[in-house]
Amino acid sequence: MNHQGTLGVAVIGTGRMGADHVRRIDTVISGARVAAVVDIDAERAEKVARGIEGCTPHTDLAAAMADPAVDAVLIASPGPAHEAALLAAFERDLPVLCEKPLTPDAASALRVLRAEQALGHRRTQVGFMRRYDAGYLRLKSLLDAGTYGRTLMLHNKHRNPATPPGFTDAMLVNDSVVHEIDTTRWLLGEEITAVRVLRPVPSGNAPDGLGDPSLFLFETSAGQVVDTELFQNCGFGYQVVCEAVCERGTARTGDDHGLVVNSEGHWGGSITPGFVERFADAYDRQVQRWVDATRRGEVEGPSCWDGYAAAAVCEAGVRAQLTGDRVAVELVERPALYS
Ligand SMILES: NC(=O)C1=CN([C@@H]2O[C@H](COP(=O)(O)OP(=O)(O)OC[C@H]3O[C@@H](n4cnc5c(N)ncnc54)[C@H](O)[C@@H]3O)[C@@H](O)[C@H]2O)C=CC1
Ligand SMILES: O=C1[C@@H](O)[C@H](O)[C@@H](O)[C@H](O)[C@H]1O
After folding, report:
1. Where is the Gfo/Idh/MocA-like oxidoreductase N-terminal domain (predicted)?
2. Hey, which of 24, 32, 254, 288 would disulfide with 7, CB 3.0 to 4.6 Å?
3. Residue 21 is part of a domain; what is its CATH number?
4. Ligand 1 atom 25: the closest Cα is on which residue?
5. What is the number of the ligand 2 atom nearest to the C-alpha of 163?
6. Does the pLDDT value for residue 10 go beyond 90?
7. Global pTM?
8. Tens digit of pLDDT for each residue in 300-329?
9. What average pLDDT score do residues 83-92 get?
10. Probe ligand 1: pick from 37, 40, 46, max atoms within 8 Å of CB?
11. Tens of pLDDT along 182-219?
């Protein structure tokens, strides 16, 4: 950190999310600056670095982490590249905010967890940003307070207008449903113990070979049941809704439509076009909280355990997609570092 205590951040991966995080650190949040960016695409790194004072573009991860101006790392490369970046950051004992998923499979997530455990202290916050969304936070407080009794079920909807090119069935789980896996574990405070996937006839708007939409069913260690409709090519906009069913009431977040207009015999509002708009405040809050905690020398938020547990559920989800069976989730014992 420089003498004013400003955190120098290296952002790894300067695509959709990475470039947005660079903008956020540069212009929205306080206490940090973008000291370096890294991308295997040199032109992209240079383009993003341009115009940011003191920001060095790199194609080499190790070189960026060795830069004395770099105090912390924000990983926004694709999931399969996260393990190498996390292990490189741990080697230098650098604090990390890692976009979800921690890694795309349980074995690599466990390797990351063990490497952090070997450091003897937490270094990682995983980018499960819904935990910073105002609506989800209100729902969590309500459920924790037990105002309506025990929570019995959650109904989730997760709809995107369209999938990017190359999206696969496994990515439906690892990139998309991973959010519901995390919110389920976080809201209920329980592990997910089994997964089933039901697949209706695919939408004619889904790319060939993609099983979209689909319905995921989770069972938890406390016997709750959670369903998630995942529809990634719904065409009409971006919607994320979570309804909790408790013993004496229900509570739902996500279906507020902002401004409602009456005109020419109709009433209605608009739907956000994508996650960048829907979760803008949550991303800002997530990164600000990471910067604030890091500057205090602390680590908070979703941990490597949360990332590993989510990866293990994802792995069961991918198997359930392929087989149509109920697949049990297997977890190692939770280390004391994450208790
Ligand atoms: N929290 C959220 O709501 C969202 C999170 N994400 C997550 O953000 C991450 C990035 O996703 P997108 O920005 O959508 O991907 P993207 O494909 O738009 O960008 C990825 C960038 O990383 C670069 N890259 C690839 N391998 C690399 C490596 N080994 N080292 C450095 N750079 C590398 C690519 O050249 C590209 O510029 C993923 O983990 C994804 O799951 C993505 C969308 C929303
Ligand atoms: O993380 C995200 C994307 O990677 C994913 O592809 C989308 O389905 C999610 O809604 C978004 O939040």
Report:
1. 8-127
2. 32
3. 3.40.50.720
4. 77
5. 6
6. yes
7. 0.97
8. 999 999 999 999 999 999 999 999 999 999
9. 98
10. 40
11. 999 999 999 999 999 999 999 999 999 999 999 999 99
* Ligand 2 atom closest to the CA of 238, numbered from 1: 10
Q: Which domain holds residue 89?
A: 7-130+281-301
245, with CB counted inside 10 A (0-12, 13-18, 19+), is middle
Give a yes or no: residue 103 inside a domain: yes
Q: What is the rounded distance in angstroms from the CA atom of residue 307 to the CA atom of residue 272?
A: 27
The verdict on 121 and 208 lying in the same domain is no
Count of helices and strands (H, E) across the chain:
11, 15
Distance 68 CA to ligand 2 centre (A): 33
| Mutation to probe ligand 1, out of 11, 12, 20, 39 (largest number of atoms < 8 A from CB) | 39
Residue type at 56 in one-letter notation: T
Q: Write the CATH number for 143.
A: 3.30.360.10
14's tokens: 């300067």
User: Closest Cα to atom 7, ligand 2: which residue?
Assistant: 176
In a domain, 2, yes or no: no
d(CA 285, CA 278): 13
Q: Check residue 60 and give its pLDDT.
A: 95
Q: Token match 């979800």: residue?
A: 100
Mean pLDDT score of the chain:
96
175: Cβ below 6 Å to ligand 2? Answer: yes
CA–CA distance, 257 with 160 (Å, rounded to integer): 16
Rounded Cα–Cα distance for residues 127 and 180 (Å): 13
Query: Could you tell me if residue 1 is inside a domain?
Result: no
Reported ipTM: 0.99
